[in-house]
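Action item from last week, closing it out:
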Amino acid sequence: MTDVVEPADVDTRVGTTSAAEASAPAAATGSRARRVPGTVPVFLLGVACAAAASAYTLHAGTNLDYGDAMAHLTIARRITDNQNPGLAQLGSVWLPLPHLLLLPLVQSMWLFSTGLAGSVVSALCLGATSAATWRLMHRLGLPLPAMLAGLVLLLANPALLYVSSTALTEPVLLACLTMTIAGLAGWAFSPRQLSGGELAVFAGIPAAAGVLTRYEAWPLVLAGAFLVAVVSLRRGRGVRQSAVWTLSFVVPSIVAVLWWVAYNQIVFGDALEFLQGEYSASAFADVFEREGELTTAGNLGLSSKVLGWAMLETSGIVLLVLAAVGLVTTSLLWRLDDRNLVTWLGGSTTAFLLFSLTTGQHIMVNDAAMPPGAYNNRYVLSALPWLSVLAAIGLAHVGAALTRRRTSTAVAAGQLDRGRPAHVVLLGGVVVATVLQNLYWLGDPYERMTVIQEAHVQHLAYVDTKDAARWLREHYDGGGILMDQTPDKSSVAPVLGLPIDEFYTRASGAVFEEAIADPYGHARWVFMHRSQVEGSATDTGLDRVTARLALDPQFHARYRLVYAVEDIGIYRIVEGLR
């Protein structure tokens, strides 16, 4: 077994908290050069679980079910493979880091077209998430059986395993979140005073990476800064030193935000393009609101119900109950101990999601929504490591309470390093309960697991477009393809499996407008909707090729329809007329 040397945890006793006064975390006892055993094996276990999931989804053909997964692969590839290459291809719809991580892998057409480029990145991220969660539980002083239980609850989650086989951004977010919190825990419990540089490296940089991955990571930076300030002041370091440490943590994230704002200003001429542009989330939310479907906006009760339902069908009743036990026991026994403050950091993303739903900034649809459906429930996966840690803490406290060798005073003090027999029994119970939970889910995954349901809904929606894409891949003989890949169910570049610089798309820039105006001089092939897209969330979802050519008699005289399925048509220019 390979161990990673870590500073030992220190006594985190708080003068106002009796539990903290009585005891530091169990990990703080013993040698000050304490290691975190199992970090590398746990990382490899996480990678192996994701790899196994990827092998299954690749064989089943489901790793490209999500339209967003195909879009992320496409964005990464078109940075270098496009008629208008460059970093501007990152766009403003999504934050850039996941696409930059995909960039070297999607240079392989095989990894790009199979979606395995996303699988590789996500597998490494699940390994990082597993290792960081393990290190966090160790730094909180949890006994080994409780840590193993937390790991089981994390890695046995089918929704997480599925997402970790795709190019979706949630695995990258989870890795950044957990590494940030584990880094903050290492700083808070270090037996020596770590420098601001060390804090920036082990917590600030992962936080900045999260800031450039998904917006759910932004509130963690604020919560982490609060933790650093509080812990610093409790150590009696004074306001000045506390400010230095706090800035050491937040400066990397500030730099990341400034870079993103500057990028939007330079590329799009609007520093807030990502917030208010035509492709932004707010633009989609406005359409939902106009159609009366943004029912969570201004409704805290419905927002809580929708979020709670998503967490139930994604995390499962077993994990939620155990996490609730952990939340209650930490609140009662650890109170405002530093350990509790560190633990609560994991809830920042869930609080942000609830706030976003209530204020109409996020859209989430499931059986609890009005109207019901399946959309964006995968966002709640950001809570999974936090819930797993809470569950492990709850099991540790319960195990200690059930062990006769432990006194009530010791249990109240939060000393969790003993009570092994009870902990082992509880671990066995968690394994059995997790198996039963998964059997229930797998009995009807398309109805009982919202993340899998979302993927299946999109799988069905993309069937015709993917069939057309495969046909074109087999019959394409060069000459260029005019296609608007922006409309709904049109981002299928990985399935097409052709070099992106063969296409004239919106991402091609001015040459796309030229090709629409004069397709005969640019493209031998045209891939478009035969009638305009209906029910598009915004005007950006309309097929601009269809709008220009569908009713043009000259186009139909010079191009021949060679493949059609539902409303999708593939046209080839009549030889001799080009």
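Closing note: The longest helix spans residues 238-268.
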